[in-house]
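Support case: nicotinamide-adenine-dinucleotide complex. Customer-provided input:
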Amino acid sequence: MADRIGFIGLGIMGKPMAWNVMEAGYDLVVYNRTREKAEEISGDGATVADSPREVAEGSDVVITMLPDSPDVWEVVSGENGVLEGIEEGALLVDMSTISPVVTRELAEEAEGRGASMLDAPVSGGDVGAQEGTLSIMVGGGEEDFERARPLFEVMGQTITHVGPSGAGQTAKAANQIVVALTIEAVSEALVLGSKAGAAPEKILEALSGGLAGSKVMEAKREKFLSHTFDPGFRVELHHKDLGIALAAGREYGVPLPVTAIVDQMLGSLKVKGKGDKDHSTILTLIEEGAQHRIGEGV
Ligand code: NAD
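Agent response - structure generated as follows:
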């Protein structure tokens, strides 16, 4: 397996993922638009590069963990981008959540440069990134997948080769539908139960043991109950992800009616200035509709 790894995008997810790669003994070179974030990790042994191009030069594998499709496009294909510096035979692994269409276009560009690309978006949040227990959904060639597997095993626990280029992103879109709609459903359940007189923690306790129980309910429990909505996973990122899911639904002729409603709810939270809050803040929209804050007067 390759020993020099480039890592671009050291945010909530990228920083702990890069850290785990470094801890596993790989030689790491990093780049982030805000340089201080890259310098935080350089103190621990990584080299800081001045551009994505410089990261790619001399790296066997380049990993990107950026917010959205235009960011990945710019970093990979733009001026001083990864593809300007990528070595022949090197592997680009984009772990951001972006459009499957953009993914396939970039994979073709990488091929044109004698390199290859995997899409490998993740699920499991900041805690999964820190603990190295992410679920990683991979699209691309079998050989490239096997080549990257040891790296994936450092960052994640459930590693699935879903299919060809773009398939990882499609699986991630499916994941985001389930997570968003579940948060919305739990929010409705909590507000109804609470306004009708039941304690929110008791509602969660009762539901958790039955068919309605879910990882979402478990992971967001404290945020719901304490109304502390620091991220975690930001509203604006989930809004982006449902946009990707709706566009895929349109392309493939799959109506996604409830996804569309929750997409509008996330858009409304952004307008209210809550784009940088955790997605569990969907609860506050339901509370507003009911004019009831859960746990009050119960
Ligand atoms: P983030 O905003 O915290 O991190 C993104 C990082 O990329 C930042 O450090 C930013 O400075 C850097 N960046 C942005 N544009 C850049 C550019 N042009 N060049 C170099 N660096 C640039 O976001 P995040 O929460 O870490 O999410 C990253 C990706 O992972 C997103 O696609 C998101 O949807 C996905 N994701 C996030 C979570 C989560 O819980 N936060 C979970 C699963 C998947």
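The longest strand covers residues 156-163.

Case will auto-close in a few days if no follow-up is received.
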